[in-house]
Amino acid sequence: MIKEPTKKIKMVDIVRPVKKTEVIQEIKWEIKEEIREKPKSPKVQAPKASVVKKIVEKRKRRVSWKFILFLIVLALLVYLMFWVLPKAEINITTKKVPLNLVEQISAIKDTGNVDILNKQIPAEIFSQVKNNTFSFPATGKKNVENKTQGEVAIYNTYSSDSQTLIANTRLLTPDGKVFHLKKTIIVPGAKIIEGKIVSSNIKAEVIADKAGQEYNIGPVDHFTIPGFQGSDKYQGFYAKSESSMTGGFIGEVPVPTDDDLKKAKENAEKSLQDYFNAFFYTQVPQDFKKIDGASQFNILKEEINKEVDSQGNFSIFIEAESSLIIFHQDDILSIFTALAKEKLGGDFKLNSYEISYSNTVSDFKKGTLNSSVNFQGLFRPPINTNELKQEIINKNELELKTLLFSQTNVDKARVYLWPFWVRKTPNDVNKIKLIIE
């Protein structure tokens, strides 16, 4: 018996095993669909061989298209994996060159540009004036005898002539309390209007005859002047108060000690200085530099009221002015960057720096500031990134290490290849990212 040649297995045949019953059911369904599409005959006939053949060919075509689509997707994935996706990122840390420079820098008002040769930069002056009254508790004690004081209006209904009343002239309340004029006054003459006398008046300060609280009285409608008693002027001149008389007291009261006054001045000045610091912090632009020794604080006016209030506090009034000379630190940096290039070379790049100031002297009249400036910088040596990228193309890990560490300016290097299966840098420089730190 001759054996039939072994059938070669095609890729399309390597599929999930399908149960025979499943295939039969699918063919039956397709036959039904094929017959349904044709006109109905009076008698149901068994499917012809041509119908079965047609169904089989349709199934073969369907499998062929799936296989072609699979190959297209597979090819696209391979292309993406090996030609599009591969990327490289290389972080290089260069060896830094330290440089320390100390220079005397001048900041001058109304100077327009940075003068590298003379080490001068522009400066600006900010000034602010502020005043305030501060209260502080008095810790001292003393026995006092205070007389009541107040204000009255003295009227002239006597004649059109003025009347002089000397200091200490007595004024008498209806209940017999005596007050005295504190200063000499002249009461203006009354006016004569249509034949009638219209009174005139003048206000004056008065003080009680005796110390004590009993002279602290309310408004009085009529004070007489005992000095005019027995004459026509007694009825023609009188006084009136519209507000209370106050201040009369006998006993112990708080008073500010010398230490109270000293601390009050210190605290009041500090409060104003804190105000100026907050003001300059919010109002001066952030790109300006403020340093120690570039500010000035002056007291313009100071008044201390030692009289305590009802809470036992005395007060101090202070008016002060604060001024500040400021400058751009970038101007300082530009001077030291230029000096560093002279020493290291123009291709070196500043990587990091610290700047400190000392021995600062300010002249606010001239608008100048002089300071000793200490510059400590780290500079990055030059690396030609374009040439290095060309050398990095299509290198494996060992080749990359050999290449990168052969560079005299390279201290550290890290290589990131993506996706994870990539073992060489891409052939395209556009897919290589070089980061120099």
Describe this structure in words.
With 437 residues, the protein is α+β, with helices and mostly antiparallel strands. It has seven helices and 20 strands. It has helices spanning 20-37, 49-84, 233-236, 258-283, 329-344, 385-392, 397-404; strands spanning 87-94, 97-109, 120-137, 140-156, 163-165, 170-172, 178-181, 185-187, 191-193, 196-198, 200-211, 237-240, 249-255, 288-289, 295-305, 313-328, 349-363, 368-380, 410-418, 432-436. Strands 2, 3, 14, 15, 16, 17 and 18 form a seven-stranded mixed β-sheet that branches. Strands 4, 6, 7, 11, 12 and 13 form a six-stranded antiparallel β-sheet that branches. The two termini are 81 Å apart. Mean pLDDT is 84; it is low at 1-15.
Q: Quote the distance from N terminus to C terminus.
A: 81 Å
Unreliable sequence segments: 1-15
Q: Compute the number of strand runs.
A: 20
Bin the strand percentage.
35-45%
Q: Tell me the overall shape.
A: elongated
The overall pLDDT average reads: 84
**Main sheet properties:** 7 strands, mixed
CATH architecture field of one domain: Beta Barrel
Tally of individual helices: 7
CATH topology of one domain: Elongation Factor Tu (Ef-tu), domain 3
Question: What's the Cα radius of gyration?
Answer: 53 Å
What structural class is derived from the secondary structure elements? alpha+beta
CATH class bucket of one domain = Mainly Beta
One letter per element, helices H and strands E, the order comes to HHEEEEEEEEEEEHEEHEEEHEEHHEE
Helix content: 25-40%
